[in-house]
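Sample A.
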Amino acid sequence: MKPGLSSLLLCLTLACSCLGNAGATTVHGSPPKKTEKSSTADHSKFKELQQDFKSGQEVTRACLSCHTEAARQIMQTRHWTWEYTNPDTGQKLGKKTMLNGFCIGDKSNEAFCNSCHIGYGWENDRFDFTNEENVDCLACHNQGKYTKPGGLAGHPAYVRTEYPPGSGTFLEPVDLAQVAAHVGATRKDNCGACHYNGGGGDGVKHGDLDSSLNQPPRQLDVHMSADGGNFSCSTCHQTDAHQVSGSRITPTAADPHGPLLRGQASDRNPATCQACHGDGMRRTRLRPAASTRPGRRTRNCSTPTPAPWPVRPATSRPSPGAGYPPR
């Protein structure tokens, strides 16, 4: 065999070997990690955001100079109104009007409860729901270093603030310009800032939602894990004009249909399990082999398993030192 031909065959053999190994890594390893931003815009380059912002409303004003319809869209959502009208009964529901088993209601304590509202300044019944600059864009689109403490009516700390008052501990002011320059698509911790901590603590109000979902192992949540689907909340809770699909007030009890295509025009709830998997669920090692449909433990996706929560009769007293185990 000629030397040149033998060298060529050797190179081809090595190339095929490398391709085979790369294929094996792709199949058995973690999903490929993005090395570059998927956004087509670098907000740090926008002159509108290169300001010394004094308030959240000033940031929103700058956002709306480009995203002209965003606030109007937000104002049509339950995240803004905290109200929902049952289409079957006409009953008014939502945080603004109904009592809650954990929080009771926000009346008389708006400045604290409404730190989870996607707006600025809701501290009493005179809040202006029609003022576009009251919309808080950063609540859902910040990429870190942005918090809204309870008691400030949805505002972050603008100056160094003793919190709680008289405690001797202080909150440093949020760098609004820095946060605004690095906004992006919603992340799990954006949603979790409110939805994990409802009721006053991590996982207290919603037993299926807590901060373990930010970076869960595959065994905890195959969808949200970086070693699984690497989903964010919005992967399933698809939005259209800021309307988020899915509702715990009127959940979809059954969805006996095939999978939906993303973007498909449909009146169905795209956040159900069947919207992706169809009504004939595949068997996986995470469910009993005999099951082909979602079982009792898979009715709600993203379900961390908390420590046992014992229940005693109201009239009984625990033995000294027994207490309740931490969650």
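Sample B.
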Amino acid sequence: MPNKKRTALDGLTVFLAGLLMLFLVGGGGAGWYVYSVYHEAFPDGVRPKAAREQTRQQVVPTKPPGLVERDAEEAQARAEWGQLGDYFGGTLNPLFGFVSVLALLITLIVQSKELRLSTRELENSSKALRGQNKAIEHQSFEQTFFAWLNNYHELLQSIAGAGPIVGELHGRAALYGWWGPGNSSALAFNWVREQFAEHERSTAYSEWIASLRHHTENEKTKAALEMLNESITPAILRKWEAVYLKHEYQLDSLFRNLYRLILWIHSQHESKLTPAQKWLYVGIVRGQLSWIEQVYLFYNGLTERGGKFRKLVNTYALFDNLTFENDPVLEYVRHNPPGGVAYMRSAFDSVAARRALGLPDTAEETMALAAGEGRQDTERD
């Protein structure tokens, strides 16, 4: 519709301009014709009144009768031409007034068109500026994101402590060394055996071991699990808590830094980051977490201290890459969490997490959606 209106307005402008030219050319031609005829009829033109009076005073006494008649005819002709001039004046004055109105209208239309073009140029410049600001803002976000992620890795690498066998360990090796003596499967099994060494509980312990190793479940294992679950998971978490408290001065800043990074991404307004783009950036973080880092985060999320982080874990499937085959105790705690505290299925399943966010099932489609939304934001702005 706007294009049709502009086409009609342009056609009206051309029509009015042509009509104005027609009046100018026609009026000029008519004036020139009248002037030519009048000049042909009166080649001497109209002399000044003083000259005519002098001529009359000099000629009248001796003017022949023929000249008198000629002067009368000439006076009559001049009167008729005067009437013709009045006619043309009365006719052309309204026409020229109309032409003046047309000229004014054409001027207004042209100015309106120029103003519209200027407004469109300003809008395009404003859109380009907004797009540039959007790109700068996104670039600033990415710089902050990668700087923050790099800071997390520096904190991780700065962790140091004595290992159980070798000397000082750093980074992920230190985390694994601290975790092994207190929470490894073999030692945990031995600890459970010590806790339930009584005869009436030894059978329950054996059934529990069988259910973990062979993934079987029957009436005996159900009864054993019901009896053991109330004590085993809290006991394992107490072991984890002992490890954390011993190295809290290094672990607290590591967990807090990672939590703040993911929370910062999650808190971005949708005008800056869409859900697909948030998933993309959290996925970058998740892809750089090692198995031992995920184990620490897993246990920490089951404590009161890690409750807020647990919500983000559920939202973005931070444990999608966490494997349990090497540690049955870890899997046991996953399926038997402490009372009132548990991870959702989406914490371990990216498809479920994406569906909860309204995103496509596959990672490829989500990444394509995130890239497409970024391009649309730039074009729209």
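B remarks: The first strand starts at residue 160 and ends at 162. The two ends are 23 Å apart (CA to CA).
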